[in-house]
């Protein structure tokens, strides 16, 4: 591959590199400049967390703790990043699965709030969100209506149509890859882990 992006950032000034070399240099430069003095401590911290089992609490248990500790600030029933981090600290500064969410907090395609789960990790907050999916056509349509969605609209009808003849029980989850890198590398600004950050005077092609 010839050519490459024209880059202006804290590592290079108007350098022309092939994409593969560019990202390799970006990672190596960041590690050498920002993590050199603390990388051993950070990796040891990760190893300690991964050697012990992940914790598990229900949403009610988590919010009860936050309320007793005077840390519950959410007004919409959800959890803020600060609250998620506090929950991780509460269970021993390790990753924790939060289960049994109120139905109002989960999208219409979740089978039930008890089958939904979020994985929270220290310093980051939510890393993974998942659930068992609703497969019943009529139940799915009713959930759409309860959440103010029109099952007959083009944006919803195609999804509802997938359940028109039934569906196999299944589940799914989403993992924030940029957040995963944030956690593994021990950085504090997600723009440092996004491949194409939208910033002035920076062009990533």
TrEMBL record:
One GO MF term = asparagine-tRNA ligase activity
Report the residue ranges that make up the Aminoacyl-tRNA synthetase class II (D/K/N) domain in this protein. Answer: 36-199
Decide whether keyword ATP-binding is in the record.
yes
- Provide the alphabetized UniProt keywords: Aminoacyl-tRNA synthetase, ATP-binding, Ligase, Nucleotide-binding, Protein biosynthesis
Q: Which GO terms describe its biological process?
A: asparaginyl-tRNA aminoacylation
The answer to whether UniProt assigns keyword Membrane to this entry is no
Record Pfam families? tRNA-synt_2
**Protein name as annotated:** tRNA-synt_2 domain-containing protein
